[in-house]
Design a protein that fits this description.
Blueprint lengths: L2 H8 L4 H8 L12 E2 H8 L3 H11 L6 E4 L13 E4 L1 H10 L3 H39 L9 E6 L7 E6 L2 H9 L10 E4 L8
Helix pairs in contact: 1-2, 1-6
């Protein structure tokens, strides 16, 4: 599940707000110029010009925000520039703004940041489970010479178990795991003192 879907699923915050403020978010981008000044003006209930003046006066271009020059489409009028802010710059502006809307936006943003921390934990947990699965798949399969009684969990995901016996556990596990993405690992293995006829 990607970040946007996670936020929409685990919060009651307006989906449009999430799209406006996290739609372009990229964790790999060092500066993350992702928040459009137009979205800020809409949610702060302010003019783009007023916010732009604040940026020019109080913040640093190419660090807090960047201006992307508009391209001419051949029509009359000056092409519009696109101004993108970093999340940090946006948060600072929200903290400094005294409008009622800015207070509401701050609360939204704070709640979303908490959920983003949960999302990071969700990703880490998922990666840890994948690593555990891969580590299990790399474990060498034992092949003792005596009879073996074993218990495995079936691959149907329902929680069914199978008890079996074999004289060649390595071969038996190879048969089970031949068509499966992840190897089945025996939950219990008991080596008998007597030889067992293969099933």
């Amino acid at each position: 599940m990607n970040l946007i879907n996670f936020l929409k699923t685990h919060t009651k915050i307006n989906n449009e707000f999430i799209d406006d403020f996290f739609g372009l978010y990229d964790s790999k981008d060092k500066y993350n110029f992702t928040i459009n000044i137009v979205a800020i003006a809409k949610w702060f209930d302010m003019t783009v010009g007023h916010i732009k003046d604040t940026l020019l006066y109080s913040y640093k271009e190419k660090i807090d925000y960047k201006i992307m020059k508009g391209k001419s489409n051949g029509l009359k009028g000056k092409p519009k520039d696109t101004i993108l802010l970093t999340p940090k710059c946006f948060k600072l502006m929200a903290m400094q703004s005294k409008t009622k809307k800015a207070i509401e936006v701050r609360e939204y943003y704070y709640e979303l940041e908490q959920v983003i921390d949960q999302y990071k934990e969700y990703i880490i947990k998922g990666l840890e489970e994948k690593i555990k699965t891969l580590e299990n798949n790399q474990k060498p399969k034992i092949n003792p010479s005596k009879g073996i009684i074993y218990i495995i969990q079936t691959s149907d995901g329902v929680g069914h178990y199978k008890v079996g016996k074999t004289i060649n556990l390595k071969q038996r596990l190879k048969q089970y795991n031949g068509d499966k993405k992840d190897d089945i690992i025996p939950l219990y293995v008991y080596e008998t003192t007597q030889k067992i006829k293969n099933l």
